Amino acid sequence: MKDLLEKIHAEIETFKAEAESLTEKGVKAAGARARKSTLEIEKLLKEFRKVSIEESKK
């Protein structure tokens, strides 16, 4: 679970950096990378929910 949380944190940091590049510097390619990152975050959060539920049943 700790490894999963580290992956989520890292992906959120990636999203923040790409979103900042898009909004502040106007780098259009950063927008695509930020959107890709949101898909990965979504996948990781779904995995977290699944693991969290399993852990709470123990």
What does this structure look like?
It contains two helices and no strands. The protein is mainly α. α1 packs antiparallel against α2. The longest helix is centred in the last third of the chain and has 29 residues. The two termini are 14 Å apart. The relative contact order is 0.17. This is Histone H1. Belongs to the histone H1/H5 family. HCT subfamily. It comes from Flavobacterium azizsancarii. Might have a role analogous to that of eukaryotic histone proteins.
Short description:
The chain is an all-alpha fold and 58 residues long. The chain has helices at 2-25, 28-56.
Molecular shape: elongated
Which structural class matches the secondary elements? Answer: mainly alpha
User: Approximately what portion of the residues adopt beta-strand conformation?
Assistant: under 5%
In whole angstroms, how far apart are the ends? Answer: 14 Å
Mean pLDDT: 96
Helix content: over 70%
Q: How many DSSP helices?
A: 2
* Oligomeric state, counting identical vs distinct chains: single chain
Using only C-alpha atoms, the radius of gyration works out to 14 Å
Please mark out the parts with pLDDT under 50 across 5 or more consecutive residues, or reply none: none
SSE arrangement, N to C: HH
Protein name: Histone H1
InterPro entries: Hc1
Pfam families: Hc1
Function: Might have a role analogous to that of eukaryotic histone proteins.
Secondary structure blueprint with pairings:
Elements: H1 2-25, H2 28-56
Helix pairs in contact: 1-2
